[in-house]
From TrEMBL:
Pfam families: WD40. It comes from Plantimonas leprariae. This is WD40 repeat domain-containing protein. Gene3D superfamilies: YVTN repeat-like/Quinoprotein amine dehydrogenase (2.130.10.10). PANTHER family: TRANSCRIPTION INITIATION FACTOR TFIID, TRANSCRIPTION INITIATION FACTOR TFIID SUBUNIT 5.
Length: 326
C-alpha cells in the first residue's frame, strides 16, 4: 500500500517535485521548502512572492519568477541563484531550454537568456501569457492573445505566427515536437500541427484547464478541468482530430485540478478539488487511491525520476510525498 509523508505549510503551493532525489515545494510566499533530512530548510527565493514556478525539462533545476522581478534557478537548498532580473516588473512565466537557456515573460516581453549571458528579446503588442521551448533545437513558443508565436533566438528572422482568436494562457510542445498546444481563457485547448499549421480544437470542458501533463511516450496529453482527467490522443499524424479522449478517474461532482503522468508507465496521477489523489492506468482504467483527501484542491504534483514517489501540494499549504512502495 502507498504511504504518505505529510507536510504543512502556510499558503498556496505553486510547485511540488524533486531535486537530486529530494522533495521540494515552491510556495506563493516566495520561499522554497526542502523538508527531507534531519532539519527542514527554507530558502527565500523571492521577496514578495513567487508568481511562476516550473521544473526544467532539460536540466535538474527548479525555475521561479517573482514579484521582485527576479528569475531564480535552484538545484538544491545550498544552490539558489539569480539568473536574470527585469527590475520592478513581475516575472509571470518561466521555462527551461537546451544548453542551460532560460525563457521568461514579463508584461508584453518574452526574453531568452542563454547560459553565456546573451539576451534575446521579443516584444508583442499585448501581454505575453506563457513561454515554452521545443524538445529539440533552440526554438521558443510564445502564448499570446489571438494565437501563438514561434521564435528562433539564435537568428534575426521574424517570429512565425499561428493565429486563433481568443486569449491563449498556456503553451506546450508535444514531446516529439510535431504539435503545439495552448490552454485558453475559455474552457478549451487549441492546437496546431506544425508541419502544415492544421488546427486542432479540444473543447467540452466545464472549467478552465489549469494543469496538463504529457504521457511517458507522448501518446496522450492529460488535462484537468472536468470531473475526470481528460486525455487527448496524439499518437497518429492527425493528433486528436476526430478522436474521442480517454476519461479517467471520474468522480461525480468532484473536479480534477491537477494531473501528472508517470515518467515510464501509461498511468496518471489525478488530483481533485477535495484533496483526493488517484493513480489510474490507461489500458483498463484501474484506480488506486494515493491520498484520501484534505482541506483544499490539489494545486501541483510531480513524480520523481524513478516513478516511485509523487510530490504534491494544495492551495491551502497541505503537501506531501506519496511512496508507492509503502
Amino acid at each position: 500500500m502507498p504511504t504518505v509523508a505529510p507536510y504543512e505549510y502556510e499558503g498556496f503551493v505553486e510547485a511540488a517535485g524533486f531535486l537530486k532525489g529530494e522533495p521540494v515545494f515552491a510556495l506563493a510566499d516566495g520561499t522554497l521548502r526542502f523538508p527531507a533530512g534531519g532539519e527542514a530548510q527554507a530558502v527565500e527565493a523571492h521577496r514578495g512572492g513567487i508568481t511562476a514556478a516550473r521544473f526544467d525539462g532539460f536540466a535538474e533545476r527548479l525555475l521561479t519568477g517573482g514579484e521582485d522581478g527576479r528569475v531564480v534557478a535552484t538545484t538544491g537548498p545550498e544552490d539558489s541563484r539569480e539568473f536574470a532580473s527585469t527590475g520592478r516588473r513581475w516575472v509571470d512565466g518561466v521555462a527551461g531550454g537546451p544548453n542551460g537557456a532560460i525563457a521568461y515573460r514579463s508584461g508584453r516581453k518574452a526574453t531568452v537568456r542563454l547560459a553565456d549571458g546573451k539576451i534575446h528579446e521579443i516584444e508583442h503588442p499585448r501581454t505575453v501569457e506563457d513561454v515554452a521551448f521545443a524538445p529539440k533545437g533552440l526554438r521558443l513558443a510564445i502564448a499570446r492573445y489571438d494565437g501563438a508565436s514561434l521564435f528562433y533566438p539564435a537568428t534575426q528572422s521574424a517570429p512565425a505566427q499561428l493565429e486563433w482568436k481568443g486569449a491563449h494562457t498556456g503553451i506546450a510542445f508535444s514531446p516529439d515536437g510535431r504539435f503545439l498546444v495552448t490552454r485558453m481563457q475559455e474552457n478549451a485547448l487549441h492546437g496546431w500541427r506544425l508541419d502544415d499549421g492544421k488546427h486542432m480544437r479540444m473543447t467540452g470542458y466545464p472549467a478552465k484547464v489549469k494543469s496538463w501533463s504529457w504521457s511517458a511516450r507522448g501518446r496522450y496529453l492529460a488535462t484537468s478541468g472536468a470531473p475526470a482527467a481528460i486525455l487527448w490522443p496524439f499518437a497518429g499524424k492527425d493528433g486528436p482530430m476526430n478522436k474521442a479522449p480517454l476519461e479517467l478517474g471520474t468522480r461525480g461532482n468532484a473536479m480534477v485540478t491537477s494531473v501528472a503522468c508517470h515518467p515510464d508507465e501509461d498511468m496518471v496521477a489525478i488530483g481533485f478539488n477535495d484533496g483526493l489523489i488517484l493513480a489510474v492506468r490507461f489500458v483498463d482504467s484501474r484506480e488506486a487511491v494515493l491520498r484520501r483527501g484534505g482541506q483544499s484542491p490539489i494545486a501541483a504534483m510531480n513524480w520523481d525520476k524513478g516513478g516511485r514517489r509523487l510530490a504534491f501540494g494544495s492551495e491551502s499549504g497541505e503537501a506531501g510525498v506519496v511512496d508507492l512502495a509503502g
